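If you are new to this repository, start here. Below is one unmodified record pulled from the training split, so you can see the exact layout before writing a loader.
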Amino acid sequence: MLIESSPTSLDPRIGVDAQSEKIGSLIFDSLVHKNEHFNLDPWLATSWETPDPLTYRFHLRSNVRFQNGQPLTSADVKYTLDSMRDGTVITAKAQALAHIDHVDAPDAATVVIHLKQPDAALLWNLSDGAIGVVPVGSGRDFAFHPIGSGPFRFVSQLQDDEVILERSDNSWHPRPAIARIRFAVVPDAITRALELEKGSADVCINCLTADMVSALAKRPNLQVEDGPGTNLNYITFNAQDSVLRDVRVRQAIACAMNRPLIIHSLWRDRARLAESLLPPQHWAWTGDVQQYPYDPAKANALLDAGGWKRGKDGVRFHLAMKTSTDETSRLLAMILQQQLRDVGIALEVRSFEFATFFSDIGKGAFQMYTLRWLGQEDPDTFRYAYDSHMFPPHGANRGRYTNAALDALIQEAGTSGDLAQRRADYVKVQQILAIDLPSINLWYLDSVLVHTRRLGNIQLSSSGNFDFLRAATVTQ
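And here is the target side for that same chain:
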C-alpha cells in the first residue's frame, strides 16, 4: 500500500497525523467505534452507562489479548488514560481528556471514568483514531515497539521508507485474509501513479489527483473504487479585515462562485457540494440552512447594497487569497480569481510552502485562505473552529470570528447528555454559520481507492481510513 508520508508516531496516545491514526487503528483498539452514521458502537467496551452526567461506567469485552498474548484488562485502559493526563507521555491529545477527574478500575472488566464537568464529546474522544488502549507500563519509547489488540501487529518501521504489519494470531477480531502489509512511503503523486501502473504496488487511497485517477481507471490491471467521502474543502475569511468583516461581502463571494463547475473541471465530478462542516450522513447534519447557488446578479446586488462601488476600471476592491503550494489549492484560487473578477473583486493569489502558509494563517496574517478538514466527523469541531475562545494557539478559529449566541449554543451542546438537545443546538449552529459565513464550505471530496485487480472484497469507508484492509483478499 502506498502512503504519502511516514506516521509521526505509532503510539496511539501521541500520533495525530493521518498516517499515524489510520495505521494505528489496525494495530490498536478503542473503547468505542464510529459507525457509518458517526454514531458510536461497542468495541472493547461491550456496553456502558452514565448513572449521572459526571460518571461513565464501561464493561469490557472478555478474553481480549494483546498481540504478545497478554490479557487486556481495565488496568490497561486506566493506565492508557492516566498516562496521557499525568505527563507519562507528552501529547496534544491530553486536552481532549481535560474534563476527566480520575479513572477507576474496580475489577478486571470494569472501567469507571469520573468527570469534573459534563463532557458530551468524551465518548468521541475514546473512539477509533482518537485513542488506542496500550499495555500497563508503556513508556515514551512505546512508538518504537507498539503492541495493541487489533487485527494486525507491528513488525518494523523505517522512517520515510516503510511500515510493515503482519496478521495477529491473538486478536479477537475476525482473522484478516491478508497476512502481511507493507506501507511504502512515496511522497510524489506521479511516482505513486507509476508504481500502481506497473504493478509494483497494490493500492492507495485518496492520494492521487483526479486526472491521474481517470487515466489509471483505463488500465486493464487496475480498478477504481469510489464513494461519498467526508474530507471537506473550505475557504475561511478574516472576519476582522476592513473589507471582509462586512457579511455582505462574504455572502457575495459565495454567490459569485460556480461550485458545480469547479467540481466538474477540477475534481472530475468526484466531489459533492457541501453546506455544512459535517457530512450529510452525520446525525447532527442539517440541510435547512441559507444556500448560496451561483448567482452573479445577487453578488453584485449585495456589494452595491454594501456601498462597494465599482471604480473606473470596474474594480470594487482588492483581496488576497493565500494557499499552500498544493496544486489543486492553487488551481482553485486561480478559478476563483476569474469568477470574482466578474463581480468587480480583484483577487490576488499568493502561494507559500506549507509551513509558512500554516504559520501565517495561525497568526491571522491573511484575508482569505483555502484548506481541507480531513475526515471531519466530530460536531465538537464547531467549538474548535468557531468559538470566540478558540483563536490560535488555543484552537482553529483562525478567522477571529466572534458570535456570543453561537458560543452559548456550542457550550450547551458540548455539555448536554441529551442527544436530541445536542442535535437541536448543532442545527442552530449550522444555520447561524450559514448566514454569517465566516467560512464557505465548498465540497466533500469522494473517497477514491485505486488498486490492482488481485486485491478484492474492498469495503470502502467514507472517512478514507484503512479499515478495508481488515476484510480485503489477495489472489495470486
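Two things worth knowing about this chain: The CA atoms of residues 385 and 396 lie 5 Å apart. The longest helix spans residues 419-436.
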